[in-house]
Design brief:
The complex is a heterodimer of chains A (241) and B (110).
Chain A (H helix, E strand, L loop, with lengths): L25 E8 L2 H17 L2 E6 L6 H12 L5 E7 L4 H7 L5 E5 L8 H7 L10 E5 L16 E7 L6 H4 L1 H6 L2 E5 L11 H11 L4 E4 L8 H9 L6
Parallel strand pairs in A: 2-5, 2-6, 3-4, 3-5, 6-7, 7-8
Helix pairs in contact in A: 1-4
Chain B lengths: L2 H16 L4 E9 L6 H12 L8 E7 L1 E4 L6 E4 L15 E4 L3 E8 L1
Parallel strand pairs in B: 1-2
Antiparallel strand pairs in B: 1-6, 3-4, 3-5
Classes of the chains: A alpha/beta (241), B alpha+beta (110).
The complex binds guanosine-5'-triphosphate, magnesium ion and zinc ion.
Magnesium ion (MG) binds next to helix 2 of chain A.
Chain lengths: 241, 110
Amino acid sequence: MCTVCGCETDHHYDHDHHREEPRAGQRLTVEEDILGRNNRIAARNRALFAGKGVFVLNLVSSPGSGKTTLLERTLADLAGRHRCAVVEGDQQTDNDAVRIAATGVPVKQVNTGAGCHLDAHMICHAVEGFDLDGLDLLFIENVGNLVCPAAFDLGEAHKVVVLSVTEGEDKPLKYPQMFHNSDVMLLNKTDLLPHLDFDVARCREMARRVNPGITIFELSARTGEGMGAWYGWLAARVGKR
Amino acid sequence: MHELSLTQNIVEICERAAAGRNVLSVTLEIGELSGVMPDAVEFCFEACAHGTVLESASLRIEQVGGLGRCNGCGAETAVKSWFDPCRECGGYGLEIVRGEELRVKELEVA
Ligand SMILES: Nc1nc2c(ncn2[C@@H]2O[C@H](COP(=O)(O)OP(=O)(O)OP(=O)(O)O)[C@@H](O)[C@H]2O)c(=O)[nH]1
Ligand SMILES: [Mg+2]
Ligand SMILES: [Zn+2]
């Protein structure tokens, strides 16, 4: 049981709907969402972040698209502008947390072990050590996986999907749920475009087919090219409740 | 393989609802756009149910087909994916009105 956040890890919370006492051979109508528990905790996280005025982004992508590199540059460039913190999700190691810590920003590593995604309960505990009152922006780097994290709301304001140009332009159609559920797509490693036959226009078109409203930035976390527009998008939202 | 953690949730929901009775069968609704593979849930169910009141329960999975509504013209289209176009106007970005379900529908208890 989880006493700190009051989340329902025990088996006796109330349901909104009525439930009869079971009798022998009886059919019980349950109609309960399998993700209900995660969604309830996510809603509580969201309310907490809104109350504290923290803008929270959930960074999702396949392994190696450049999430940590992107964060390292973003944190360095935003130092003094926004007060940031990071939650790092990986199955194993604290390598990414060590990289983030080098930027001087508070970071909490969550290891999911066999788990392929972060869930709302992990986030609820991961942020316990942060002074949320003193934060403007919280980045959550999810486990590198274009499938599973799509289904798990963490209480973020937006999912931001990072796609690198080395992965092929058809990823939005191959992993549509992730691109559908993300509000922003960061097309990373554009410095490599001259060496590839990646078709940026086609990639944008496919992302828009899955999600017409998606906001797309082309950038290189390596060279810094295109990062300004991303910072502008952040600045327009940070601090707004 | 988030089917494993989902199946753990399924077992928890059923245990609560069964309130100590043995469960004979479990019926799930899984939408075709939920991103969850029924086969994988079946595979995980046996392991997750072991040692619980669901140990000998049979698992029934009802798949729910996808349905999207066009923001442009209002037509409804049966969809297999997130990027199927509207059958009337060809527009993309249908609002999914059915097919994302992940629900424990009912139980049969002994
Ligand atoms: N050329 C180029 N390489 C990049 C860029 N961004 C990241 N990389 C490289 O891509 C590799 C993976 O980068 P990471 O930042 O560790 O990727 P990640 O998404 O955090 O990886 P996981 O956390 O393991 O999923 C590293 O070798 C980076 O140096 C970029 O914009 N251009
Ligand atoms: Mg990383
Ligand atoms: Zn239409």
